[in-house]
């Protein structure tokens, strides 16, 4: 049954509603955060170091109990998932130093025993392609190999929701984006929902998906990258002009920056196919600008 908090949650892979979380003696890391991940969406969660990305992903997975608000996965309370729902989730934490004495082959055999659905062909293919030695102790693998192995483990049971916390952090800069594209390709074919966090902007370019900006405990904005670049503009003018213009265009102001002499700069998202009047001072924005202004 649908809870009153989540009018559309049955359709969502994950839905967070008004989620607040603080660590003891700290400020709120998540502050009445609303967020939904829809089936098949591939979302890059972007935020500065310490913004709360790990906290958010752990809360989304039901690994942390929020102080307020609710989290649902596949329409179920994330803190009380049944086994079937659990089996639909794959998670790659930022650091996993478990099983260091196992070999990759032993690790995979161990996890295989838990999952009714396990794709041996995919596992074997990825082990070869990503050059993971099967019979060497995991503690002797490089950081990048460990990370890839952790990803193979999470992909093997073909999850409907794949959550990856900084999945390319241990890879060298040159390989990061290519690897991400390959990873996303693996899961997109099946229509799985994927969310991965990063604090590195260039990871996201040309991987083609939605971007969610985490800032001040909330998702400040989420949209497909190409739509953002098409629809977000920076306007400059007097405060009154800006208010009139935003209302007239039906634009959604994302950030206002006061300038001298009663003027301001407004970063705003325009409705699709807006035609701007010639008289307006307007700039295009790139992903760098968005990151700087929204996180
Ligand atoms: P990110 O993943 O974006 O770098 P985190 O979720 O790791 O951010 O951390 C968000 C904030 O919460 C940081 O200020 C961090 O210091 C703090 N924090 C994270 N984990 C804990 C914890 N277990 N106890 C107390 N504070 C924490």
TrEMBL record:
Any GO MF annotation of the entry: ATP binding
Sorted UniProt keywords: ATP-binding, Cell membrane, Membrane, Nucleotide-binding
SMART domains: AAA
Database matches in SUPFAM superfamilies: P-loop containing nucleoside triphosphate hydrolases
Database matches in InterPro entries: AAA+_ATPase, ABC_transporter-like_ATP-bd, ABC_transporter-like_CS, P-loop_NTPase
Domain ABC transporter: 14-241
Domain of life: Bacteria
Protein known as: ABC transporter ATP-binding protein
């Amino acid at each position: 049954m649908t809870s009153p908090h989540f009018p559309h949650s049955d359709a969502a892979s994950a839905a967070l509603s008004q989620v607040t979380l603080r660590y003891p003696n700290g400020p709120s890391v998540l502050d009445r955060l609303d967020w939904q991940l829809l089936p098949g969406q591939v979302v890059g969660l972007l935020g500065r170091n310490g913004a709360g990305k790990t906290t958010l992903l752990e809360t989304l997975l039901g690994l942390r109990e929020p102080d307020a608000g609710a989290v649902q996965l596949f329409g179920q309370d994330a803190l009380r998932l049944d086994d079937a729902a659990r089996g639909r989730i794959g998670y790659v934490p930022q650091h996993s130093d478990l099983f260091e004495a196992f070999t990759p082959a032993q690790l995979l055999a161990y996890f295989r025993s838990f999952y009714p659905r396990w794709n041996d062909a995919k596992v074997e293919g990825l082990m070869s392609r990503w050059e993971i030695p099967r019979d060497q102790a995991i503690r002797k693998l490089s950081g990048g190999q460990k990370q890839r192995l952790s990803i193979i483990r999470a992909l093997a049971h073909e999850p409907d929701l794949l959550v990856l916390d900084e999945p390319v952090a241990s890879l060298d800069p040159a390989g990061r984006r290519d690897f991400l594209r390959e990873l996303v390709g693996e899961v997109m074919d099946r229509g799985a929902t994927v969310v991965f966090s990063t604090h590195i902007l260039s990871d996201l370019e040309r991987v083609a998906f939605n971007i969610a900006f985490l800032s001040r405990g909330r998702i400040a904005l989420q949209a497909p990258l190409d739509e953002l670049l098409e629809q977000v503009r920076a306007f400059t003018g007097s405060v009154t002009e800006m208010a009139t213009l935003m209302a007239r265009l039906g634009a959604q102001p994302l950030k206002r920056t006061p300038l001298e002499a009663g003027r301001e700069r407004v970063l705003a998202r325009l409705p699709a196919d807006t035609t701007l009047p010639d008289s307006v001072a307007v700039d295009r924005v790139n992903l760098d600008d968005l990151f700087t202004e929204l996180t």
